Amino acid sequence: MMKRYVIERDLPGVGAMSDAELGGATRTSNAALARIAGIQWEHSYVAGDKTFCIYLAENEDLIRKHAELSGFPANRITEVTTIIDPTTERTCAV
User: Which residues are paired to 39 by β-bridges?
Assistant: First the structure.
C-alpha cells in the first residue's frame, strides 16, 4: 500500500528558477521516477531555497532511491498520517 510523504529539499536558488529551469528539474525527476516502481510524485511547493514535495510511495527507501538517482536531496522525509481540511469539523464528534 502506498503512503503519502512530504519531502523537504534544500535547493539553494530554486525559488528564483525560470520556468525552463523548473521544467528541466521536472524532467530529471520524472526520468528517475520512471526507473523506480512503487513511487509517485503528486506535486511540489517551491518556497525560497526549498521545495516541499508530496509523494506517494510504498516506503521511505524508495524516496531515498529517487533522491539518489535524481540528484535532488531528501533532507527531511515525513509520513503524512492524516489529512484535514476546512470540512473536517463537519465529521468530528464534538
Answer: 57
Q: Is 28 in contact with 17 (CB distance < 8 Å)? A: no
Mean pLDDT (whole number) for 36-49:
98
pLDDT attached to residue 15: 96
| Three-state secondary structure call for residue 78 | strand
| Predicted model pTM | 0.91
Could you list the residue range(s) of the whole structural domain that residue 7 is in?
3-91
79: helix, coil or strand? strand
Look at the chain and report how many structural domains it folds into. Answer: 1
Q: What is the CATH number of the domain that holds 58?
A: 3.30.70.3090
User: Left (φ > 0), alpha (ψ -120 to 50) or beta: where does 2 sit?
Assistant: beta
